[in-house]
Amino acid sequence: MTKKLYDENSYLKEFEAKVLSCDKTDEVYKIVLDKTAFFPEGGGQPADKGEISGQDVLDVQIEDEVIFHYLKSPLNVGDTVKGEIDFDTRYDRMQNHSGEHIISGIVNSLYGYENVGFHLSDETVTLDFNGILDDVMLRDVELRANKVVWNNVKIRGYYPDDDTLKNLSYRSKKELSGAIRIVEIEGCDRCACCAPHVKSSGEIGVIKMLSTEKIRGGTRIFIKCGKRALDDYAERVNVMSKVSNLMALKPNEIFEGTEKLYSNLYEIKGENTNLQKRLINVLISKSLPEDYLLLEEGFSVKELQLLADSLYKKHGMIRGAFSNVEASTYSFAICGEETLLNDFFARFKDLFKVRGGGRNGMVQGTVEGNIEEIKSFFKF
What we know:
By secondary structure, this protein is an alpha+beta fold. It contains 9 helices and 21 strands. It has helices at 5-8, 87-111, 135-151, 162-166, 226-247, 254-286, 301-315, 338-351, 371-379; strands at 3-4, 14-25, 28-33, 35-36, 50-52, 55-56, 59-63, 66-71, 80-85, 115-120, 125-129, 155-158, 182-185, 189-192, 207-215, 218-225, 293-295, 319-326, 329-335, 353-359, 362-368. The strands form 5 sheets. A 7-stranded antiparallel sheet has the order 6-5-9-2-3-8-7, with no helix packed on it. A 5-stranded mixed sheet has the order 17-18-19-21-20. A hairpin with a 2-residue loop joins strand 20 (353-359) and strand 21. Helix 2 (87-111) crosses helix 3 (135-151) and helix 6 (254-286) runs parallel beside helix 7 (301-315).
């Protein structure tokens, strides 16, 4: 067994330990120490980061209570080495993990739902509950969770003896064996957990729910706590300030201003669609039977489809509408009787660099080539 220094003191940043073994596996070395402050991956939380004897610790895993540290270079068995934890990362994870326990404890006490999934990475924190939580319920849970933070209650981790454990009510995601570590948040939650936590809820700073989604008949919550929540808030304020300046609106006017902007944009799109239809009608009215291909600037694929279809309906045969994308590259739509078009399009792809396809008498895509050669092919 490896002595878990992080159980005794989650704030320990540096330690010394004796190297018990060093085995090469693939391109790295698995190091076992007699004791360690490095938390191994487990319980939905990644392993601690840091250094041992100046080497970056690549990973930390636990197997049968033996903790393995993965390094690029070997260490000498019997040597005493110095380990140093990346404490900024450790503390960030402690804040967020403790915040998760508070939310899970409150949800369990209010609604009886269990936390059936927890994931903590350097980017996201997710909590999965086996029941539906609506917006009103979540807002209430968030407020209650932050009141626990404001009350600055004690958080402690301990290993109760067998007799105490038998009579102890606590949350657990799975059946456990061996020594069970309990993390208790005064007046809020008691849960089996192997990870480091802050000493008091006030250290979490703030607990913020960002979004939710339904998952397997339950609810997944995305949260940020502590410095992550502060950084997220700063970024949101920064974005809001930029949008406010861009739109010449006060922050509290942005939503209504954006709604109005979208409404205007919708009207403009409608007007643009009508103008494009009128333009297509003009082009069709002026088209001649020998106009097998029309080249127009700034047409979307949908507009090209409408133009090609209108040409085909007026003149028959094979009709194409093209629009320049960049030098020697064109987007297109081609219409015609299906059997005739399939044969035409197969030959078209043989002669030019074409990407695209279609069915029911309509094909579309892009083509690279000389437009005059493409026109000649259509006439031929």
